[in-house]
Specification:
Layout lengths: L1 H13 L2 H38 L5 E5 L1 H8 L4 E4 L3 E10 L2 E9 L32 E5 L9 E5 H7 L6 E6 L2 E12 L12 E5 L1 H7 L29 E9 L5 H11 L4 E4 H44 L1 H9 L4 H30 L8 H4 L8 H27 L3 H5 L9 H11 L3 H11 L2 H33 L10 E5 L5 H9 L4 E14 L2 E10 L8 E4 L7 E5 H6 L7 E6 L2 E11 L8 E5 L10 E6 L5 H12 L3 E5 L6 H34 L1 H9 L4 H42 L11 H27 L3 H4 L4
Parallel strand pairs: 4-9, 6-8, 14-19, 16-18
Antiparallel strand pairs: 1-10, 1-11, 2-10, 3-4, 3-7, 3-10, 5-8, 7-8, 12-20, 12-21, 13-14, 13-17, 13-20, 15-18, 16-19, 17-18
Helix pairs in contact: 1-9, 2-7, 2-9, 2-11, 7-11, 7-15, 7-19, 7-21, 9-11, 13-14, 14-21, 15-19, 15-21, 19-22, 21-22
Length: 802
């Protein structure tokens, strides 16, 4: 053991520093990519779970009339509940666009101030003064409104951060067309739905006196709960401004029963909407999960590339150290000791790199988080020992195997042959020459390709590393194109409209229908009414669609569009959750109305991760729509259409443009591009290293060629031809590999969003067309640069075997 340890330390100290550094860097990059991806995927969950506990375990949010909710508070399944919370629907301008808001009346300790005197709240710390049952809002900055104050508001923290609203700012809350200026005295997090901009409405908290000032006449109650999130855009519909309602939040005796309790409450007909914590948690974390899984996938690309790089580097390094290995064998080292020593070197170097990369990936992960930054801020860097250990062991294991195989082969070579300067075995040059003769290539090209073919093992490893890098580049380009398509064509995310028109309280929907039909800038519209539907003991979002069926331009992936009463379209998520097929009949209950629907198709939808049921509004007679979704004429723009609608509709409705791509999507695309570029750099660097090692090994052959009349330009041209051949081989393998991998990874991402498979957009055409010639050119340049200095040496110096 001591002899092996001395051998390892001697190899690390006396080996080629560039090769050792390459091993450390490759291990660091591979570990950093894997750890960062896994950390991003996992870091959001614990933070959200801590909020859930801090908020008193809000297992169930129930919407309905105050009287019905008082009955629900006595339900046997609830261990505790909040007081019945009154609210009014409103709008607030963020970034000069109206955003739906729900203004809640504070009750209990929160109404008298959330923090003990003299204690300021912290961003991530507890809020001990708001113990008013489960689901209490969590104060993060400022204070709660003073009791009796009629102009103070605690603002939704996610929306406040997004819009740059701070404590002390004045905001204008509009209720039923009437503006009310309020002063922001704090910001808070609320867990009755996911966060802005993924979910609307945003939540505002005021004293009961302020709510009495804002609320319309009693009896005009809201008909349901807020809707759920869309990973690429804001939620389209919310309660109409001016409508009032009530909710309560319950903590269940057994949180696992949330879905069954929600189904029972809906079936009893006492409530108008129910939302479980499991649904809300999934909605909050969907971005982090998809983004983290994508980064982890790229980390695996780095790992595969690392295996090729290390195997190729180890092979080249062992060829250079053949005489050293033979001398060690001649002085008594056994083959097992030699292999253990050589593998020990790479394990030591790999462990160093894995440790550095794991720490770097852990420190980088907070800056890659998406979806939770605005409400929660950046998480503190956290090193997860198990994640770091698992990624490190995987990386070091692959490095060890990649080194052990060529080491075993090198240790088995007879020492007498190696010490006589006999060149290492290769493919017989005569066989290569006969093959190239059939191709009728020029002399320079023949010699260059021949030099590559003589070493098939090394060629395969070098080409493999570049092929993986090319595949990662294709995947990165395709991923970016796919996300850009989902943003540019919102129908693929279930949002085939440009502008949302939410009727004000008391507005006759038919008046809006007549107005929309008479505006030339309107290309089409459809109405939408959201309700929780019940099927057995399962609940999910259902959406009644009215207006001309042709104007509801959902992207139907299988089957046909929704045309008449009795038909249903389902999102991909619901299709799989309920194990449905096109043609199946689904008996559901909506607002205590039994509906028997035939599934005529499934469509692309990202809201509620695709767990959405569409049916015609005629099956909910007398129920006013939540909103009208309006599309512009082909030559129009959403901004111009919104301006016209605001002018024509006045106070009858609130008009807002469909939310566009959130800024955090930029974090995703930048990270994917950086990972792809990093892999490409690693692959090209290894290509250059492999060609340089091959050129040094062929130095005597280059000297012979120079002696018989080859010029420096011709010898450099040979190396360029060999590098170009390697690039062609790598691109020919990497391009189709990347297309297949892109399809698999993109399908995984779009299925996770709920939109279903088959939405992968092809990588940009310039990338596809430029991949092969670009890789060939890179190989040619690398080959020329690797041989240029050697080719200029005197032939007498080159012919000596070194």
């Amino acid at each position: 053991m001591a002899a092996v340890l001395r051998l390892v330390l001697a190899g690390v100290r006396g080996g080629n520093r560039a090769t050792a550094l390459a091993a450390v860097v490759v291990a660091a990059l591979a570990t950093a990519g894997i750890v960062a991806g896994l950390s991003v995927r996992d870091q959001g969950g614990p933070r959200v779970d801590r909020l859930y506990v801090e908020a008193g375990r809000p297992d169930l949010v129930v919407y309905g009339t105050p009287e019905a909710l008082e009955t629900v508070r006595r339900d046997r399944a609830l261990a505790d509940s909040s007081p019945v919370v009154r609210y009014v629907a409103a709008t607030v301008a963020l970034h000069a666009e109206p955003v739906d808001a729900r203004v809640d009346a504070l009750s209990g300790p929160a109404a008298t101030g959330g923090n003990p005197p003299g204690r300021a709240p912290t961003v991530d710390g507890p809020d001990p003064g708001t113990g008013a049952g489960p689901g209490r809002p969590l104060l993060r900055t400022g204070r709660w409104p003073v009791p009796g104050a009629t102009d103070e508001v605690v603002f939704d923290r996610a929306a406040a951060t997004d819009a740059g609203i701070r404590v002390g700012d004045r905001v204008e809350v509009t209720v039923a067309g009437r503006p009310y200026p309020l002063t922001v005295v704090g910001t808070a997090i609320d867990l009755t739905d996911c966060f802005h901009p993924d979910c609307d409405p945003i939540r505002l908290f005021v004293d009961a006196a302020t709510l009495s000032r804002l609320a319309p006449a009693p009896g005009d109650t809201d008909t349901g709960a807020p809707t759920s999130p869309d990973p690429t855009a804001g939620t389209p519909t919310s309660p109409a401004p001016g409508r009032s309602g009530a909710l309560l939040v319950g903590r269940l005796t057994d949180p696992a029963d949330a879905e069954a309790v929600a189904a029972r409450l809906l079936a009893d007909g006492q409530v108008t909407g129910v939302q479980t914590w499991a649904d809300t948690r999934d909605d909050i974390l969907i971005r982090d999960r998809i983004f983290g899984a994508s980064l982890a996938g790229f980390g695996l690309f780095v790992l595969v590339a690392a295996a090729f790089v290390v195997a190729g580097t180890a092979t080249a390094r062992l060829l250079v150290r053949r005489r050293e290995i033979a001398l060690l064998a001649s002085v008594g080292y056994t083959g097992r000791q030699l292999v253990a020593g050589l593998v020990g070197e790479i394990v030591l170097l790999g462990t160093t790199g894995a440790l550095a990369g794991g720490i770097a990936g852990s420190l980088l992960a907070p800056y890659l988080q998406v979806g939770l930054t605005n409400p929660l801020g950046r998480p503190a860097p956290r090193i997860a020992p198990l994640t770091l250990l698992g990624a490190g062991v995987l990386v070091v294991l692959i490095l060890g195997v990649a080194t052990g195989l060529p080491a075993l082969r090198a240790a088995r070579q007879p020492a007498s042959e190696v010490l006589r300067d006999r060149p290492p075995r290769a493919v017989t040059p005569d066989r290569v020459a006969r093959l190239l003769d059939r191709l009728r290539l020029g002399t320079t090209v023949r010699y260059g390709i021949g030099a590559v073919l003589v070493r098939p093992g090394r060629t395969a490893l070098t080409a493999g590393a570049v092929a993986v890098a090319v595949a990662a580049l294709v995947v990165g380009g395709g991923f970016t194109a796919t996300m850009d398509r989902l943003v540019a064509e919102p129908a693929y995310t279930g949002d085939p409209y440009d502008v949302v028109v939410a009727p004000a309280s008391g507005t006759d929907p038919q008046r809006l229908v007549a107005a929309l039909s008479g505006i030339p800038e309107v290309g089409g519209w459809y109405s939408q009414t959201d309700r929780r539907a019940l099927l057995g003991d399962r609940t999910f979002l259902s959406r009644a669609v009215g207006g001309d069926p042709d104007d509801a331009g959902f992207v139907v992936r299988e089957g046909r569009p929704l045309r008449a009463a009795g038909e249903a379209l389902v999102g991909y998520g619901l299709l799989h959750r309920l194990d449905l097929r096109v043609g199946d009949t689904v008996p559901v209950r909506v607002d205590d109305i039994p509906l028997t629907l035939t599934v005529v198709g499934w469509y692309s939808e990202t809201e509620d991760t695709g767990e959405v049921l569409l049916y015609r509004a005629e099956q909910l007679p007398g129920v006013p729509p939540d909103a009208f979704l309006v599309s512009a004429q082909p030559e129009g723009t959403p901004g111009a259409l919104a301006a016209v609608l605001r002018d024509r509709l006045g106070t009858d409705a609130t008009v807002r443009i469909r939310a566009s791509d959130p800024d955090e999507l930029g974090t995703f695309t930048v990270a994917v591009r950086l990972m792809a570029g990093l892999l490409l750099a690693v692959g090209l660097a290894h290509l250059g290293t492999g060609l340089l090692s091959g050129a040094r090994e062929r130095s005597r052959a280059l000297g012979v060629l120079r002696a018989v009349g080859f010029t420096v330009r011709q010898t450099v041209g040979q190396a360029a031809a060999g590098g170009a051949a390697l690039g062609l081989l790598a691109a020919s393998v990497g391009l189709p590999l990347g297309l297949v991998a892109h399809r698999l990874l993109a399908d995984r991402a779009t299925i996770g969003m709920g939109a279903g498979p088959g939405l992968a957009e092809a990588p940009p055409l310039f990338l596809l067309l430029g991949t092969v010639p670009g890789t060939v050119l890179a190989g040619a340049v690398a080959g020329a640069l690797a041989t240029r200095r050697l080719a200029r040496r005197a032939a007498s110096e080159l012919v000596r075997w070194e």
